[in-house]
Design a protein that fits this description.
The complex is a heterodimer. By secondary structure, chain A is an alpha/beta fold. In chain A, about 40% of the residues lie in helices and about 20% in strands. In chain A, a hairpin with a 5-residue loop joins strand 6 (about 140-145) and strand 7. The longest helix of chain B is centred in the N-terminal third of the chain and has 31 residues, at about 5-35. Classes of the chains: A alpha/beta, B mainly alpha.
Chain lengths: ~180, ~160
Amino acid sequence: MKYLKFLLPMGIFLVLVLFLGAGLKLDPKEVPSPLIGKPAPAFALARLDAPEQKIARDDLLGQVWMLNVWASWCVACRQEHPLLVEFSKAKTLPIYGLNYKDQRAAGLKWLADFGNPYTASLSDLDGRVGIDFGVYGVPETFIIDREGVVRFKHIGPVTPEVIRTQIEPLVRKLNG
Amino acid sequence: MAKHPTSLLLAGILSVLLACVMGAAWANDAAPAADNPALEARMLTIASELRCLVCQNQTIADSHAELAVDLRRQVREMLQAGKTDQEITDYMTARYGDFVLYRPPFKAITALLWLGPAAMVVIGLGSLFIVLRRRSRMAADQFEPEEPSAAPDHPSS
């Protein structure tokens, strides 16, 4: 009883420290996606480089693929891009780009200037497919499995660590 | 006031032109509201319950972020298609999660969020009650005497 007077505030303080410490580690920008484990939203979008050709979600069934949301106006995409170009050379999985709320000419110029890691880029001119994918911070990266189910989402530029520790093991697992 | 008729006419034409330009600029911004004020009001009511994920501490109704503009358009279109408020809220949470709602549903994961403040009040009032009750039962000689100039030194040291 005598010690309680000291231990109780100490205990409360320690709990508070734990909560605040955990809070420091959390990134409020990283909102867990409700899409994980659910089928990817249906879409049928024109190819950026060949607008007369459309690619639909169901065309991509049967393979593990990556969807990378990018735009020529997106500064963080520029930061991410060299890594994606490098990653695409390993041919770990096909990378499809979602050219989000961009102008076709600007998007094409961007790919010509900085390299094109994408199997194909899809034009989401008015951002509706972006909304269906819950995109709110470009760049965003999704991994979609053979059955068309979203397995992984990364918000913000992909880093070498994310590729090594999360994307590569996941793709191996999904393909294995 | 005797004004020259041509200058009056000129002023008239100019103000009409100005009104047209201003009107056009303004209408461009608020065209949907002019179409259907009731629908726009409903859209804003729904949008004010949704968090803008780009700017996190603003609602979709308040924010000028491009995503918020798109989502307002989405809500507007869904209302025009006759969707209910619940259907629109479900549409948003299916894409952005419960985080998009300013009043998230009560679940195991949000229990601390909803009950935390009430629990704090209960703990605070409870401990205040216990301390006060214990003091009221203490004999008067357990308190330090109320003497304004008791000792030169601090009594407890």
